[in-house]
Structures are given as structure tokens and as C-alpha cells.
Amino acid sequence: MIVLVLTMHQCVTHVVGKDTQPREPPFLSIVSHFMDSRELKQKLETWISEINFEAPEYDARAHRLIYNEVETIAGAPEDDSSPGNIPPALVFYAIRNFLHPTFIVGQIPDLCNLLTMVDVFRQYAVKKSGDMLTWNTYYSKNLLDLDVRLLSEKEVLKLERYRTQSQLQRKEYFLLLRNLFQVYIHYLWTAPESSLLPMRLNDFFPGSMAGTKQPSSLLFHHDLSDDEKHELAELHTECKTWLTAIDAWQRERKELGEQQGYSEAELQASYKDDFQAAFPRPVEYADLAVVVQQYLKSVEDMIHRLEAWFPPSSTSNE
Fold it and tell me: What pTM was computed for the model?
């Protein structure tokens, strides 16, 4: 799984050419390359489709086939291990591995980066939907003698729906990130790796930790709108208020415990349970996993529908 996540991270952070021409939204030009490795894509999709992520028993053989392929990609020469050789199916697979059989809450930062990739796929699909509608309008008025198939009414309606629901899906994605941040910070407070909290707060809210100049490792920051940046600032304020409340609770709990004759060891032993009682989870893990899965499936279905209607070779960038 570590190799898989690192490979996914390499794909999104890959540098695109530094031309001065008008550019697509961040990362969209990368995704066009993701769609080109047909043989690899079909092979991985076949293996992944055979996995029942909700099955009670772990299918070690099926997962090993996929891991071996990922290791091949990661160990290939630079030209062969480029983002062009990483299909979307692999990102969907990695996310489902975090969700099943139980939600791996400690891996939420990696999950957030993978979800950013999913939103990239969504943006790319929406852009291509708009391109096809534009060309369809043009050719419907300028067919001449060209051998061009116009879109059916059903296809036009579906593509228009993808465009009109784009803003709503973006809001769903950003709200999902917000919930994941809150759940992770809550989890990390009493987790064995709680020492990571300052670093992760800086990841979520860059520059929020005094004396920390390390850039965020989270990719979602690269294409935030002004409204989203404002919402993120509001979330930062909420988190600071919450952390202040925890600090006050800890002091009161320690003072009360000492008055009642509890030792430091006894207070420490009951700390996690007391914390959970005083500060319940912002969202239950199972509920959050369901929302992630719903968002994932909505984007996945859109991509599959477009690929079924319009083979990738007919929509790829030259």
C-alpha cells in the first residue's frame, strides 16, 4: 500500500510543460495522459472488478496481482513510470483499500491526496463533456459533406447534466475534505502518532504553526477558489477554538483528578475514554466512509459512461 500511495502522489505532482499558452485548470492536462495506457488500464480494471472489497475475508491473491503491477510501474525507468502509465482505476482501488474492510483513519492525509486526484478526473471529464457539446453544436450547423456522427438526444442531455452538476460535485468534494480534516485531527489527539499533530495542522492550514515553514504535503491547496480559501480559514478558526477548549478541559480534568486522589497513571489510563466522552467524533467513521464511497462512485460512473459512449481515442488530446 505504501508503494501504491507514493506512486499516486508522484502522478499528481508531476510537472507539466512550462509553456506560456492558456492552460487547462490545474492537473487537467496530466489526466489526459492517464487515459492513454489502454492495455494496463484494462488489465487493472479486470483485476480490480473481481475484488469484493466488502467481503469478510481478504483476497490476498487478487490484491497481490495489483501490487505487483504497481511495483513494476514504480520501478520502471523514468519515461515508463510517468503519470501516463497510472490509470484512474488504480486511484479508485487505492481509496477503496482505505475504506474496506474498515476505515483506516490514520491514513486520511493520503486519502485526501487521492480524492484530489479523483476531483481532477472529474474536472477532466466535465471539460471533455463541454468540448463534445461544443463540437456537436458546430457540426449540427456545419455538417457539409463530412462523415460526422452527431450526439443523440440522450447523450446531449447526459453531457449537459455533467456540466450543470459540476459545481455541486465540487462543493461535495470540498465538504468531504473538511470533514476528513476534522475527523483526523480528532483521531490524532489520542492516537499513538499524536506527535504528528503540529505537522498535520500545517498540512491542512499552511503557515498556521509558528516557526514552521514546511510547505503542505496536501495537494488540494493547488486549485482552491477564493470562496474555498475563505471556508478553509473559517475551519482553521473552528479548529483553534476546539483545541483551546481541549486544553482548558485537560487542566480542569487534572485538577479535579488530583483533588479526588487519582494518580497520574490512573488519569492517563482513562484519558482516551474521557476525551471521547467530552469531545465526541465530529462524524462517525462509518458514515464518513459511506460519503467517500458515494462521491467516488459518482465520478467513477461518469468516467465509465463517457468511455463507453466515446472511446478514449476519440476524446484524447493531440
Answer: 0.81
